[in-house]
Amino acid sequence: MSKKQVEKSTQNRVVPGDKIAVIEEFLPDETCFEQDGSILSMTTGEVLPDQKKHKITVKPFKQVLQLRRGDVGVGRVVYVKKQIASVDIHRINETSVPLPVNSILHVSEASKRFVRNMYEVTRPGDWLKFKVVRTMKPVYISLIGEGLGVVIAQCNHCGHDLNFYRRNTLKCPNCSLVQNRVTAKSFGKLVTSFKRTSNNETR
Ligand SMILES: [Zn+2]
């Protein structure tokens, strides 16, 4: 890449509020806005002008999630096998993750007590509170620690929200089925917006 090309590609990278063009040249789309004759970016990304159509857009960069060992987050279980669960990370240190990052929970990191298989720990669709134990991909998470575990779960049988029954045991108020999970102390107390998101995703 020549020096000129490098300069050009750097110029195309913008952050919110950067001036990317003037209104005489281009029409802004939903990624930018007009202010005093200038077009400013609303997002972090690359500017893509279309000279022919006189339109301009900013293609957002994929958000890179910076993880640190010990970070606490909230994720949703995608699938469960005997030894592992696949978990999408939706929240890290109280901040939403724009693009969920996949992680792995191994059965040895599920509980301080001996757990034979992952089906005693969690099920697909559950929401977990976890800590990060490996930050490189694949990301590994753990439920061993104060306040970690399943925070929202639905019935294996009928899909109804489960209620806390006793530690590591949940009960369905609809069909009375009692089920095992590794429950967090805060089971059921997590903000309900997570539940709404999960319902929307599955519909
Ligand atoms: Zn049920």
Describe the structure.
β9 (84-92) and β10 form a beta hairpin. The chain is mostly beta strands and 203 residues long. The chain has a five-stranded mixed beta barrel. Strands 1-6-7-3 form a four-stranded mixed β-sheet. Helices cover 9% and strands 41% of the residues. The chain contains two helices and 16 strands. The longest helix has 10 residues, at 193-202. The structure holds zinc ion (ZN). Zinc ion (ZN) binds at residues 155, 157-158, 160, 172, 174-175, 177.
Query: Per the principal axes of the C-alpha atoms, what is the gross shape?
Result: elongated
Strand composition percent: 35-45%
User: With helices defined by DSSP (H or I, 4 residues minimum), what is the helix count?
Assistant: 2
Mean pLDDT: 86
Give the strand tally: 16
Helix content: under 10%
Widest sheet, order of strands: 8-9-10-12-11
* Annotated CATH homologous superfamily of the largest domain: Nucleic acid-binding proteins
Q: Could you spell the SSE succession in H and E letters?
A: HEEEEEEEEEEEEEEEEH
What is the CATH architecture annotation of the largest domain?
Answer: Beta Barrel
According to CATH, what is the topology of the largest domain?
Answer: OB fold (Dihydrolipoamide Acetyltransferase, E2P)
* Ligand species: zinc ion
Poorly predicted regions are 1-9, 195-203
Instruction: State the name of the first-level CATH class of the largest domain.
Output: Mainly Beta
Report on the biggest sheet. 5 strands, mixed, barrel
Q: Which value, in Å, is the CA radius of gyration?
A: 23 Å
Q: How many domains, as an integer?
A: 2
Structural class: mainly beta
Distance between the termini: 47 Å
